[in-house]
Amino acid sequence: MKLLSMLSLLQGGPLSGQAHPSEGPPDLQGMLMHHILDGSELEFEILGRGFVIPLPHFPPVEIGGITVDLSPTKHVVFMFLAALLCLVVFIPIGRAMRDKYTDRAPSGLANAMEALIVYFRDEVVRRNIGHGADAYTGYILTLFFFILFMNLLGLIPFGSTATGNFMVTGALALVTFLVVEISGMRALGFKGYMRTIFYAPPGLHPVGQAALLVIMTPVEVLGKLTKPFALMIRLFANMMAGHTLVFSLLGLIFMFAGIGTAKWLVAGASVLMVLAIMLLEVFIAFLQAYIFAMLSAVFIGLIRHAH
């Protein structure tokens, strides 16, 4: 189903606004960018008929001297869908655990979610953060499932991967950066936290301490900034690269459409490779959500035990 929707998007027609291949060679680059990047409309197809739903546009507002456009986009819609999925899945499970499974083990989906949550609490949060780790379990789990649902929504027919937008991954990384630094301040105190930026080894000659302060302070500051940057780029690049590769391989079908019988070999090879990559993309969707959540726990643990 996802494969058919991608072929429909690449063909052009009502969804992409591009010409049908019979009217001229398709603009593969334009269609690739149109369907991978963010947009101001939602596109889907039912029984071969394409529909385009334009999203509302709000006048820009000025906040603190900065003009901000708060109009919803395609990726914003799928972010809200991911958040809604989190609520739809976990609110009923939470109520069932509170009311129904108080004296016995849960069953079905609740049992699977309990096993996953306990694994994250014991093997990801507690193992990496240490003492006081349970307070961060909710945040780490929220990160994992929110990112996972955004990744998976990009694999459904006519879906869009919000995590393929570096503004989305950047916002997630910024929140993690704030959580990490505030956790460090609370655990180490103001003086202890400042030592994670301005550190002079005790017992060293004052001249050596001054030299190390000059050299290491910029390094420590850059180290704090590179952690969220790495989180942002890793998630964005992996999700964007996978979808770009899938659409590019499907585009080969239309590039070789007029080359006799060779087009069938190219089409068959493209479809087989895309199917294999789509299976890999499902694994990557889980893996990247896990890596983002795990590294967030690692960074929190590192600063809380900076000594």
Strand content: 5-15%
How many domains in all?
1
Distance between the termini: 53 Å
- Strand tally is 4
Overall average residue pLDDT: 83
Widest β-sheet, arrangement of strands: 1-2
Note the quaternary state here: single chain
Number of helices: 8
What are the segments in which pLDDT stays under 50 over at least 5 consecutive residues? 13-22
Global shape: globular
Largest sheet: 2 strands, antiparallel
How would you describe this structure to a colleague?
This protein is globular. Helices cover 67% and strands 6% of the residues. The protein is mainly alpha-helical. It has helices at residues 2-11, 28-36, 74-99, 108-129, 137-153, 166-195, 206-255, 262-304, and strands at residues 41-46, 49-54, 61-63, 66-68. The chain has one domain (73-304). Strands 1-2 form a two-stranded antiparallel ribbon. Strands 3-4 form a two-stranded antiparallel sheet. It contains 8 helices and 4 strands, in the order ααββββαααααα.
